[in-house]
């Protein structure tokens, strides 16, 4: 009969992996879509905000959808509100920067406005996020997003400024003033492109962009025979534009 002999030495304990510092980024799963971890987080957030609303979406759900830890998400964004603010500024900020550059160029006023419209349409139609849903989230009425609403108002005012200059350069004062009463339709036409992103594929979006661009010029009273030339000059002007690189930080 044998007896168990008590161990006199502790069994070796396998080494435990050291935990990284809180918030230290981890490599996101390879998804072969060319997106950075930051962009993956934004895409996941916009999808969940659109499907179940902002209030019901948690940061854990966003992190799980991307395939990362919450600490990784917090490395890129402080909280859920920062995510939503970043989604909204992803279209307004580039348009404002382009407008600032266009203001400094020696361009015909109508060409300047056309270039802004063309740039803004391309930004909105090629954006990867569900902005047509995000823009209508009720939380945007809260004070926390006042800066976002302010930026959109600023962009609308730039459209008015460029539109007034274009009208004044083309029409007698009285006619220009009458046409100016409908200038906000120009901004509304461009903003409406957000809801067109999911109608068909890339080819349909390109057709919509061209149609909206021509329509914006018609709102200004540009004669039909001058529209192709104005569009061509605007596109040529934009070839010299170099957007400002984003702020340094985790990608």
Number of strands: 0
Number of structural domains = 2
**What is the mean predicted local confidence, pLDDT?**
80
Q: Main β-sheet: number of strands, strand sense, barrel status?
A: none
Top CATH class of the largest domain? Mainly Alpha
Predict the CATH topology of the largest domain.
Tetracycline Repressor, domain 2
Shape by Cα distribution:
elongated
Strand content bin: under 5%
Radius of gyration: 25 Å
Low-confidence stretches: 1-28, 247-251
Terminal residue distance: 67 Å
Quick overview of this protein structure:
By secondary structure, the protein is mainly α. It has helices at residues 37-52, 59-66, 70-76, 80-103, 109-126, 131-134, 146-170, 173-180, 184-191, 202-219, 227-238.
List the helices and strands and how they pair.
Elements lengths: L36 H16 L6 H8 L3 H7 L3 H24 L5 H18 L4 H4 L11 H25 L2 H8 L3 H8 L10 H18 L7 H12 L13
Explain what the structure shows.
The protein is mainly alpha-helical and 251 residues long. The chain has two domains: 25-77, Homeodomain-like (Arc Repressor Mutant, subunit A); 80-238, Tetracycline Repressor, domain 2. The protein has eleven helices and no strands. Helix 4 (80-103) packs antiparallel against helix 5, helix 7 (146-170) runs antiparallel to helix 8 (173-180) and helix 9 (184-191) packs antiparallel against helix 10. The longest helix has 25 residues, at 146-170.
Which tags fit this structure?
single chain, 251 residues, mainly alpha, Arc Repressor Mutant, subunit A, Tetracycline Repressor, domain 2, 2 domains, 11 helices, disordered C terminus
């Amino acid at each position: 009969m044998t007896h168990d002999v008590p161990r006199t030495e502790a069994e070796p304990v396998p080494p435990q992996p050291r935990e990284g510092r809180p918030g230290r980024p981890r490599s996101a799963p390879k998804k072969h879509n060319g997106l950075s971890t930051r962009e993956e987080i934004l895409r996941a957030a916009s999808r969940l905000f659109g499907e179940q609303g902002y209030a019901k979406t948690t940061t854990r759900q966003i992190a799980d959808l991307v395939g990362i830890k919450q600490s990784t998400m917090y490395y890129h964004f402080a909280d859920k509100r920062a995510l939503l603010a970043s989604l909204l500024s992803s279209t307004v900020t580039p348009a404002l920067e382009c407008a600032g550059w266009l203001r400094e160029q020696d361009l015909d006023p109508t060409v300047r406005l056309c270039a802004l419209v063309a740039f803004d349409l391309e930004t909105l139609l090629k954006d990867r996020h569900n902005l047509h849903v995000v823009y209508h989230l009720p939380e945007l009425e809260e004070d926390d997003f006042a800066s976002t609403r302010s930026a959109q108002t600023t962009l609308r005012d730039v459209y008015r400024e460029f539109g007034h200059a274009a009208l004044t350069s083309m029409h007698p004062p009285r006619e220009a003033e009458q046409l100016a009463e409908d200038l906000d339709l120009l901004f509304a036409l461009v903003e409406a492109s957000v809801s067109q992103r999911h109608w068909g594929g890339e080819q349909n979006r390109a057709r919509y962009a061209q149609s909206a661009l021509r329509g914006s010029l018609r709102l200004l009273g540009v004669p039909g025979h001058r529209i192709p030339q104005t569009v061509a000059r605007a596109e040529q002007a934009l070839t010299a534009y170099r957007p400002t690189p984003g702020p340094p930080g985790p990608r």
